[in-house]
Amino acid sequence: MTPPSATIVALATAPAAGAVGILRLSGPAALEVGRALAPGVPEVPTPRHAYLATFVDASGGVLDEGLFLYFRAPQSFTGEDVVELQAHGSPRLLRLLLARTLEDVRVRPALPGEFTRRAFLNGRIDLTRAEAVADLVAADSEAAVRAAAAGLSGALAERIRALEEPLRALHADLEGVLNFPDEAEGADEDAGPRVATLRSEAEALRAEVGRGRLVRQGARVALYGPVNAGKSTLFNRLVGEERALVDAEPGTTRDALEARVEWDGLGVTLYDTAGLREAPGRVEALGIARTRDLLAAVDLAVLVLPPEASGEEASSWVREAGATPVFVVTGKCDVAPVSAPWESVPGFPAHEEREASLPFPGPRAASATSVSFPGPGAASGTSLPSHGRPRVSGLTGEGVEGLRTSVLGRLWGGGTPSAVALVSERHADALRRTAEALGRAEEASRVSTLEVLSGEVGLALEALGEVSGTSVSDALLDTLFQRFCIGK
Ligand SMILES: Nc1nc2c(c(=O)[nH]1)N(C=O)[C@@H](CNc1ccc(C(=O)N[C@@H](CCC(=O)O)C(=O)O)cc1)CN2
Ligand SMILES: Nc1nc2c(ncn2[C@@H]2O[C@H](COP(=O)(O)OP(=O)(O)OP(=O)(O)O)[C@@H](O)[C@H]2O)c(=O)[nH]1
Ligand SMILES: [Mg+2]
């Protein structure tokens, strides 16, 4: 017999003054303890009925008038008896109520995430949904909210189950053939193709981790380029307020500035950086070093060039970004001559078209070791055409909307940022181990024994179980739920 679980208590609302503050109890003693604070509530309250009740101290003194809710196990968030006292949102009052519940020896304060952990342990939600609860609480963009909400309603759980069930069936078939060769004869026949299909599905799901990270953490985009190109003016335009200093003096921006925006629901942290040039002053050189570090860390670099920059200069600048993808624009287009007729067409070509038209292998193939900054006429093996470059003006706003759209396209590709399974680094790691075991299983199906094949399929199943929670250790659960807040 498992020992009776403690009844836990915590504030379910933030410990700050607010309209309503909620104290939540979960566990076998929840009703009794809750009723001690709200003696007017019937001994056997109707579950899920909101009782208007008087909350009292130990000697019956009135502390508040609030709502009392009872959820009878297992029809509750945790699957246990749950009681909520919904009081006025006074932090001091809530501490008094909390202290009163803790006078009962059966009650202890909840650990971070413990309500959700109990929901998981009691089979109310699988692990991906439990994690979606934390994602939702932490979400700081509309895309993050929507993706977490989809996770909460089982979007990722469903895709994991679609892998886990056939994998389990395959494992059972293989074990059947191993243990009862006569009865189960032939059940392992198509094991090879079955493994291959499951492996590619695991890989496909794992590939979503990049998008998951973008949604969860937001994208990072840096404006960079030569001094005085109009980066700060463009930054201010994109952010919608005068955040960065702008001046005709080259070298105005010394330190990277950042601002958070939300584009089509996707959180984007924009950086304005110190313009790059040779022979800068000492302080400016420090700023330039920071620009370099930042360029290595962002998801996309937007290179802002002066209208007169040549194709050779452009490709040297692109190399400055190292492995970071670069989107090149011509700034100050309001004062730049239109060099080709198609440039006056509003909006930009889609980024795929631009990519395809670039006569160089792309920023990812570029060397990250170049040390000198391109000056006018810098020699270089490759060259970016200046005529096809999108044109923007931070001053007039021309082309800025198109830039925003192109940057989003580069970051996200097709589809909407919210339509995504929030695959975390943790999930991706488990999926990688799943796929690796399936890779070995595939190999084993050709060259090895059934035991080896089945063993690898078993390992794949175990790794996958870490995502759904069908095979998790207490240690893993500890780490996972530590990132929750108390009361969640
Ligand atoms: N006041 C309050 N609001 C809250 C919560 C809460 O605990 N209290 N939640 C806490 O995170 C979230 C809601 N999540 C919940 C999930 C399941 C059940 C529940 O009672 N489930 C039962 C019955 C389902 C049904 O009737 O359809 C069940 O699953 O059996 C309650 C809340 C957000 N809002
Ligand atoms: N005509 C025109 N002038 C601009 C535009 N953008 C910036 N400028 C002017 O160009 C000068 C430099 O602008 P900044 O935005 O400070 O340029 P920056 O690239 O941030 O410069 P550093 O920080 O020194 O590297 C200022 O005098 C701006 O008013 C533009 O789109 N059109
Ligand atoms: Mg600047």
TrEMBL record:
Residues 7-124 form the GTP-binding protein TrmE N-terminal domain. Keywords: Cytoplasm, GTP-binding, Hydrolase, Magnesium, Metal-binding, Nucleotide-binding, Potassium, tRNA processing. Residues 353-397 are annotated as: Disordered. The keyword GTP-binding applies. Binds 1 potassium ion per subunit. InterPro entries: G_TrmE, GTP-bd, GTP-bd_TrmE_N, GTPase_MnmE, MnmE_dom2, MnmE_helical, P-loop_NTPase, Small_GTP-bd. Its cofactor is K(+). GTP binds at residues 228-233, 247-253, 272-275. Residues 127-485 form the MnmE helical domain. Gene3D superfamilies: P-loop containing nucleotide triphosphate hydrolases (3.40.50.300), Probable tRNA modification gtpase trme, domain 1 (3.30.1360.120), tRNA modification GTPase MnmE domain 2 (1.20.120.430). Mg(2+) binds at residues 232, 253. Residues 220-329 form the G domain. Pfam families: MMR_HSR1, MnmE_helical, TrmE_N. Its EC number is 3.6.-.-. (6S)-5-formyl-5,6,7,8-tetrahydrofolate binds at residues 24, 84, 124, 488. It is found in: Cytoplasm. Exhibits a very high intrinsic GTPase hydrolysis rate. Involved in the addition of a carboxymethylaminomethyl (cmnm) group at the wobble position (U34) of certain tRNAs, forming tRNA-cmnm(5)s(2)U34. Belongs to the TRAFAC class TrmE-Era-EngA-EngB-Septin-like GTPase superfamily. TrmE GTPase family. Homodimer. Heterotetramer of two MnmE and two MnmG subunits. HAMAP family: GTPase_MnmE. This is tRNA modification GTPase MnmE. It comes from Corallococcus praedator. The lineage of its organism: Bacteria, Pseudomonadati, Myxococcota, Myxococcia, Myxococcales.
